[in-house]
């Protein structure tokens, strides 16, 4: 009996959810159809069928991880006003996400960046585009805050984006490798301090 469209969609979503978890620990390049089939108690053909190839399954897993990051970190910022309120909301959500990651290996995008930065191909391109959009979103909020008079107008937005990203990556390592329970609160404090340091001096 052929599956209905809804059943096929649920099967695809189930495969992707398991693939994301496995890729977090093994890396996207370590994601195999055989391991997924065993975990899901499915045939290899049944696992790869909804995607057409292992490569497309890897892309789907990456896309789902990015969706989860967007829901957890970007959405709270978008729910506030643009500019500085958005940045503060994003920082709080970002650090909470790092402290209580849905992935066994911490921030998926950070782990994938380390895995793929020197491996050219569709996965790296997709990740590059994702990180570029994320950095652009942060830079846009910084620029908006500058226009509103909330941040130093002479600040290069990319400088602050790099600082925030570096603090997040450091916190992810401290949490995952060092088991430092203070890492996420420290990152939140330092990120907020970085914003405060760029507030214009009173006239």
TrEMBL record:
PROSITE patterns: HTH_TETR_2. Residues 9-69 form the HTH tetR-type domain. Gene3D superfamilies: Homeodomain-like, Tetracycline Repressor, domain 2. Keywords: DNA-binding, Transcription, Transcription regulation. Coiled coil: none annotated. The keyword Ribonucleoprotein does not apply. Residues 32-51 bind DNA. This is TetR/AcrR family transcriptional regulator. It comes from Streptomyces musisoli. The lineage of its organism: Bacteria, Bacillati, Actinomycetota, Actinomycetes, Kitasatosporales.
